Amino acid sequence: MDGIAELRAKYLAEIGAAAGADALEGVRLAALGKKGEISLMMRELGRMSPEERQQAGPALNGLKDEIDAALRARKAALEDAALDERLKAEWLDITLPARPRPRGTIHPVSQVTEEMAAIFADMGFAVAEGPQIETDWYNFDALNIAPEHPARQEHDTFFLHRAAGDNRPPHVLRTHTSPVQIRAMQEQGAPIRVIAPGRVYRMDMDLTHTPMFHQIEGMAIDRDITMANLKWVLEEFFSVYFGQRVKTRFRASHFPFTEPSAEVDIQCSWVGGQLKVGEGDGWMEVLGSGMMHPHVLRSGGIDPDEWQGFAFGMGIDRMAMLKYGIPDLRAFFESDLRWLRHYGFGALEAPSLHAG
Ligand code: 2NL
């Protein structure tokens, strides 16, 4: 039988040389397993004389503890090494920048609408909204538009289909946002200051017209409202919207819902085929307006002997085009890359079309 010192040296060497968990377990079984060399020797202790046992017992126990501790230490070291290997192999570079993804944008019409609403909000106007499908009363009668008026012909207005025997009043796609203002008057009464932006529909389709477009109307009703208030509000609006002082020109006109009525032009110039708003001695019509007709005030439940108001309406799409220098509707809707990109058209996000 080997002496304690030899056993110790042999197993410590084998433990040190074990390259993995399996080899290490082999060493453990050989030394400390049920039939391991050290276990067998410990079983021998029972057959020894008390003197021999007193000497061999502590030595064997010490050896057993030492081998056991060495096995554990080696096991931990092997596991640490394996973990280090994995960490090295599975290293991931998380500093790599993400690939750019195409992003959508706010629709230019929505953007301009919000800008306009913010400017009018500073002058005390709240935003009113309403249905896009209206009765012909809200769209026409309430606005003093007579039954014979050309706008009421099938030709100009989208009427909703009525099945035979359906006797509800005719419904139309609103041709202006004025019905929203009638509803606002009925709900809030006077005094009132609102704007009504939104989609409107007319049976029109050519180089300068689309069947759906956006309109913003506004009105202010109080006891002493005059056209002077209208002129100031509009000039203030144009100046803030275009970022510079813009002169206006009021020309007498006619609308069924206002009396007197005025068409409003803004100052502009053509320089080298480029339209510039707010300079030069040219004029461009952008807006219709006037003092609200007494019949229209009454439709809104407001007494025209006590209250009066101004109202105006203009096209949002057109104002967006003017602000961004887009020459015509075809460019606006079909071909101008600035607009298409702004619209978020997917094809434009192809890498070959990306500037940077
Ligand atoms: C135009 C003309 C206009 C109005 C709209 C209005 C609304 C109510 C009462 C009276 Cl509820 N008037 N709106 C007034 C004058 C002109 O629009 O050419 N728009 C593009």
Descriptive overview:
The protein is α+β, with helices and mostly antiparallel strands. It is built from twelve helices and ten strands. The protein has helices at 4-17, 21-32, 37-44, 50-89, 108-121, 136-139, 178-188, 227-242, 294-299, 316-324, 329-335, 337-343, and strands at 126-127, 133-135, 171-173, 192-201, 212-222, 248-255, 258-271, 274-277, 282-292, 308-315. The strands form two sheets. Strands 1, 4, 5, 6, 7, 8, 9 and 10 form an eight-stranded mixed beta sheet that branches. A hairpin with a 2-residue loop joins strand 7 and strand 8 (274-277). Helix 5 packs across helix 8. Residues 345-356 have low confidence and may be disordered. The structure holds 2-{3-[(4-chloropyridin-2-yl)amino]phenoxy}-N-methylacetamide (2NL). The site of 2-{3-[(4-chloropyridin-2-yl)amino]phenoxy}-N-methylacetamide has 18 residues, from helix 7, strand 5, strand 9 and strand 10.
Number of strands: 10
Helical stretch count?
12
Helix content: 40-55%
Uncertain residue segments: 345-356
Q: What percent strand?
A: 15-25%
Based on CA inertia axes, which overall geometry fits?
Answer: rod-shaped
pLDDT averaged over residues: 88
Euclidean distance between termini CA atoms: 82 Å
Give the quaternary arrangement of the chains: single chain
Query: Could you tell me which ligands this complex binds, including any ions or cofactors?
Result: 2-{3-[(4-chloropyridin-2-yl)amino]phenoxy}-N-methylacetamide
Structural class: alpha+beta
Summarize the helix and strand pattern as letters.
HHHHHEEHEHEEHEEEEHEHHH
Radius of gyration: 44 Å
